[in-house]
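dumping this here so i dont lose it
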């Protein structure tokens, strides 16, 4: 039977749906309470909720899952629904979490920190084990964007541009004048040839 009733949902300060946002908010809450952010590595979360007045928190995943904390070699099982009361530095009334000791799965009920960098996991029977806090901490990677600097276009002085334009205009004018002079010389030569030819004809007729 689910511990998450309609009354609890109605009293919730925060409710989220979808794996990505639920993962983000659950890690944030753990960090805010001074607990390692990798303490509850559930998978495919569907819902997460938090009642700020009482500290009651719940996580619902698609199906139960297991996770091995590699730094301590411990296997932990998480039910489809995990609930707890969270306070600064501790988790109380934990449900849905079991740890494997030898061949047995043992329920965990409380988790708390001390001032020596140890985290304690306690069972309903009063048994407990302690481990380094670092074993449950996830190093979050920060992606930095590389800035590409683009050199600004080089400014061309207005005066220099004007000089270049005048040079081009002058070269164009000179070229046109040279073409006109060559054309005039050609015309003069052709006129001389025609005049010489007429003179020859007149001499012959005489």
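and the seq i came up w/
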């Amino acid at each position: 039977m689910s511990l998450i009733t309609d009354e609890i949902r109605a009293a919730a300060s925060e409710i989220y749906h979808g794996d990505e946002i639920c993962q983000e908010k659950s890690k944030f809450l753990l960090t805010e309470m001074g607990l390692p952010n990798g303490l509850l590595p559930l998978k495919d979360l569907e819902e997460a909720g938090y009642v700020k007045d009482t500290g009651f928190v719940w996580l619902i995943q698609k199906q139960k899952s297991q996770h091995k904390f590699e730094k301590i070699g411990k296997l932990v099982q998480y039910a489809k629904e995990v609930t707890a009361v969270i306070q600064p530095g501790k988790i109380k009334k934990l449900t849905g979490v079991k740890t494997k000791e030898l061949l047995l799965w043992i329920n965990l009920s409380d988790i708390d920190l001390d001032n020596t960098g140890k985290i304690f996991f306690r069972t309903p029977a009063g048994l407990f084990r302690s481990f380094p806090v670092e074993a449950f901490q996830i190093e979050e990677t920060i992606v930095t964007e590389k800035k590409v600097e683009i050199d600004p276009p080089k400014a061309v002085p207005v005066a220099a541009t004007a000089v270049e334009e005048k040079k081009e205009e002058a070269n164009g004018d000179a070229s046109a004048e040279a073409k006109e002079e060559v054309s005039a010389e050609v015309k003069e030569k052709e006129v001389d040839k025609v005049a010489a030819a007429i003179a020859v004809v007149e001499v012959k007729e005489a």
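The two ends are 142 Å apart (CA to CA).
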